Amino acid sequence: MTTGIGTTTAQLVDTHRPTLDRALEAIAGREFWTPHPEHPKAYGEGAAEQGKAAFDALCGSRFELPGQPVSGEWVATEVSPYGPELGISYPRMDEGAVDALLPVMRGGLPAWRKAGAEVRAAVCLEILARISARTPEFAQAVMHTSGQAFMMAFQAGGPHAQDRGMEAVAYAYAEQVRTPARVSWEKPQGKRDPLRVTKEFTPAGRGVALLIGCNTFPTWNGFPGFFASLATGNAVLVKPHPRAVLPLALTVRIAREVLAEAGFDADLVALAAEAEGDGIAKDLAVRPEIRVIDYTGGSAFGEWLESHARQARVHTEKAGVNTVVIDSTDDYQGMLANLAFSLSLYSGQMCTTPQNLLIPAAGITTESGPRGYDEVVADLAAAVDKLLGDDARANALLGALVNEQVRARLEAAPSLGEVALASRTVQNPEFPDATVRTPAIVKLDATEPESEGAYQDECFGPVSFAVAVGSTEDALELLRNTLRSKGAMTVAGYTTSSEVARQLEEVCFDEPAQLSLNLTGGVYVNQTAAFSDFHGSGGNPAANCTLCDGDFVSGRFRVVEVRRMAED
Amino acid sequence: MTTGIGTTTAQLVDTHRPTLDRALEAIAGREFWTPHPEHPKAYGEGAAEQGKAAFDALCGSRFELPGQPVSGEWVATEVSPYGPELGISYPRMDEGAVDALLPVMRGGLPAWRKAGAEVRAAVCLEILARISARTPEFAQAVMHTSGQAFMMAFQAGGPHAQDRGMEAVAYAYAEQVRTPARVSWEKPQGKRDPLRVTKEFTPAGRGVALLIGCNTFPTWNGFPGFFASLATGNAVLVKPHPRAVLPLALTVRIAREVLAEAGFDADLVALAAEAEGDGIAKDLAVRPEIRVIDYTGGSAFGEWLESHARQARVHTEKAGVNTVVIDSTDDYQGMLANLAFSLSLYSGQMCTTPQNLLIPAAGITTESGPRGYDEVVADLAAAVDKLLGDDARANALLGALVNEQVRARLEAAPSLGEVALASRTVQNPEFPDATVRTPAIVKLDATEPESEGAYQDECFGPVSFAVAVGSTEDALELLRNTLRSKGAMTVAGYTTSSEVARQLEEVCFDEPAQLSLNLTGGVYVNQTAAFSDFHGSGGNPAANCTLCDGDFVSGRFRVVEVRRMAED
After folding, report:
1. How far is A446 from chain B (nearest CA, A)?
2. Nearest neighbour of B561 by CB, restricted to A519, A534, A550
3. Could you tell me if B356 and B255 lie in one domain?
4. Residue B538 domain-assigned?
C-alpha cells in the first residue's frame, strides 16, 4: 500500500483515492469498517520480532530529524513504565529554535495549500500507510511509553489509532470539498444585462497547528488532530509528552519523509521535544503563528489553553468523571464481567474508564432476584478478582502504571472510604521493575458530604467508587450534575426498564454525553471504534470536541473567496 | 407560502421541504439563487403602505410578548436616526426575569430535540416565510433603527437577511443529517460470532443560545445565528441593541407564534430588551445555561466574550480595517465609480466598507496612461461628488448616520491629515432631523509614523484614508500586516498585472480574507450574496466565523450516541 521514493502526487492520488472513497463512505454510513488489521499475525511472519529489533535499535541512540531547525541540545526523557530507560535523545526545542523553526514551517504552507484537498489527503494516507507498515515498531514504542500491555499497545496504538487518523483525513477532505473550487455567478437584473461574477473558493489552512500529546495514548489521541490539521493545509508542530515522545517522533519522521518525497517542504511537520519541566507548550500555545491547537491531558492546562490561546482554534480532551448507573439487569453475570473488564483494562488509565458506579442503596433487581448494594459491590469485586486471578492474564490486561502519581492515588484510595476490593500487586516476570496493580473499588455513600469530595473529581487510574445512592432517580440526578459540572467521556447504564433507559438518554441529551446501555460480552464502554463511534461528545466539560466529526475539522481552515468580474 | 394556525409539523414539512432541498442545492453549488424577491413591487400592491401603517401602529405602544416571563418593567430606547422617537416599549429584562426565563426556555428543549432536524428546519422556514410576508414592515423597522435608506433597509433588512437566515437553516440541516439516525454495527470476530451493536445518533442542541444584535444590521447580521441556533435544536434568547430592538422583537414574536402553533414551547425564543447602559449582555453571556453566543459589534466586547464566555461556543463579528490595494486598472472610470459607490452606501457604516485605499505615491497606470497619487485621489473625490451631487440620490444612498459617535469621528477626520474630499451635509426633506453626511477622504502617508495611528485602526463611518505607499509591494506588505493585526471583512484590489493579482491572492490566503478583484459596474466589495459569497473569512481578527458555512453551525449541537447490544 505504500509508494516508493520519488513518487509524484498524481501517483499518490491514484494509490490512495480508493481508500479515501471508502473512508468517506464509512464516516457517512458509520457501519463497521477498518483498513488496518487488528491481529499481529496480519503483519507477516517475523514482523513482531522486526518491530522489537527496530525499537531496540532506537533505544540508547539519538533520534535524528534531518533538516529540521534544532537547538543543538539533546534531551532523553523516556523511562518505560516497564522499567528500562529508553535512552533515546531528541533535539531539544528552545525559544531560539522555535524562532527559527516557525517561519520555516510557514514557508512550506503556500505549496501545501496549492496542492489542494485531494493531494493533501493522499499524502496523509501515504503517511498512514507507512505508519501501518511499521505497526509492530509503534506497538513497542507505545507499550514502553504508555505502559499499555503489548496487545493493547499493538491494537490501540497501531490499527485503531491509524483508523482514527484516517477518519480525520476523510472528514477533512469532505469538509474542504463542500464548496466548489470555481463558480460562475449570474444575477438577473430585469431588462439590463445580468451581473456576472467569477468566484474561486480555496481552502486555506490557518497556519501552524500545535499538537500537544499525552502520555497514555500518544498515537490514538494524537493522530486525529495531527492528520486533521495536516489534511486541511496546516503545518503541524508536534509537542509530545516528555514521557511519550517516541511514537510521535516516529510519526514526525515518517511524515517528513513522505512530504519531501512528494515534493513538499519536510518542515511542514516538526518535532518539539523538551526536558521534563521545560513547559514549552505554554509558550508555544500563545505564539501568534500557532493557529490551531490539539490537546489531550489534565483539565487545568486544557482550560488555560481555551482561555488564553485566543489566536488559535483550540481542541481539548480533558478529564471527566465517567459514570455508570446500575438500576437493574437481566444478565447479572454478563454485566459484572463487562464492568470488571472495563475497570481493569490498562489499569483504568483510559479517559473512558468508568469511575463512579451509582448503585441504589436498596439494591437492584436481576434476572435471579434482587441483589443488595453490598452484594452487588462484592459480586463486582469478585468478578474483577476472577478476571485477574491469573497473573499472566492480569499482566496482559493491566499493563503497567504509567507514573508515580497514579500509584500515589491508588495507594491513597483506602483513605477515601471502605475498600470493597483492595488493589493487589502483580509480578511481571518479563519486566520485574514494572508497577502492576489490580484496580481498587471503594464504597462511598452519596448522602454523606465527605464522600462528595472523593467521587466528584476525576481520580485517574485503577480506582473506582461504588457510590450508594438513594434511588435510581437520585442516580440520574447525580449523573446530570456530574455531567454539567465535571463532564464525562463515557456514561453507561444498566437497566431493564425502558423508562429508566429513556431517562438516561434524556440526561445524556440534555448534558451531551455518549451513552452505552446494558453492555455485556465483548463490547465495552471504554472502547470506541473509528468510523462509527464518536469519542466523547464535545458537549460537556470533559472535552470541547469529539474525535472525530465535521466540527473537529471545520475550524482548521478557512475558505478564501476571490471574486472577479466575469470575462465577456 | 405561509401556513395557517393549527398546522401540524407534517404539513410544515410538506410545505417547506422543496425550499429546503433547493437551499441545500444552493449552498453546495453556490450559483445565484434567492427565494426572496428584492423589489418592493413583488410584495403586492399597497404592501409598502401597509408596512408603513403597521410600523406606525407599533410606534408609541407597548410591544407585548404574550406568555414570556418578564420583569414587569418596560423600556423604550429607540430613536430613529431619521429623527423621531419610536416610543415602543419592550419588557425590560432584569436578573430576576432572567432567572425565571432561562429554566423555562430550557424546558422546551426536549420536545424541540425530539422533533428532529427536518421538522426544526420546516419550522424555521415557516418563521422566515412569515417574516418575508411582512418585509415592508421590517423595512420600516430596519430603516428607523439603523438609519439605512429605505431601499437598502428593504433589501438588506428584508430579502437579503432572509436569504442569510435560510442559508443558515440549510447548513444546520445538512450538518445534522451527516450522521445516520440509527445503524447496526457488526464487527467480525474470526470464527466466533461477530460483535453486534445498535447505535442511535441524535443531534442535541447545546442549550440556550444568546444572540447579541447590532445597531446597523439587526436582521442581516442577526438572522444567521438566530436560525442556525434554532435549527440545531437550541432555544434562542435575543438581546437586541437598545437602539435597534424592533426588527428582532418582530422576529421573536413571529417565531413564538409559529413555534406555539406547531405544538412547541413558544419560550424556545425570547426577547431580552434593556435600557441603554444596562449591559445585560455581559451578565447573560457567562450564565451557565448559555451555551452558544452570536455577536456582532465592537472588537473590545467581542474579544471579552471570546475569553470569558468559556461555557459557550462563541461566534463573533467584530471590527476590521478593510483595505483596497490600487495598483493599476484598465477601466479607470469604472474603478472610481465602483469605489465611490462602496464608500457612499449607507454612509460607509457597513462592516464591509473599504477604509484604507493603498495607492503608490508614484501613482498608478490606467488604460489612458499613468495617474499620480494626487490625481487618483482627486479623481476618486470627484467620483464621489458626482455620485452624490443630487441630494435625492445622495439621500437614497447615504441614509442617516446611525449615532453621535459616527458623527464625531467624521467631524474629527480633518485633524488626521489633508482632506481630499470634505464631508458635506445633505438635507433630507422628508426627515429634516436626520443627520445625513457625504463621506470624507483623508490623505495619509504610510511612511509618516503619525499616519499609522490614523489608518491602522477601524474608523467606523464615512471616513476613508487614501494612504500613499512606496510601491505596490509596500501596499501588499501593509495589507498583510493589517490582516494579521487588525483583520478585515473585505479586501479589494485593482490591478492589470496577473503577478500582482497572484500576490494579492497569496496574502489573502496566508491571512485568510475575502478578496474582490477589479470590481466595476454593479458588483461591490461591500456586498455579499447569500448562498454564494461567504461574509468574512473567520480567519483574521475581524471575525472568528463566516456567515455562513459548516463551521458556523457544527458547534451548535452535539451528536449524542446511544449504544446497545443488538437484539438477537
Report:
1. 24
2. A534
3. no
4. no
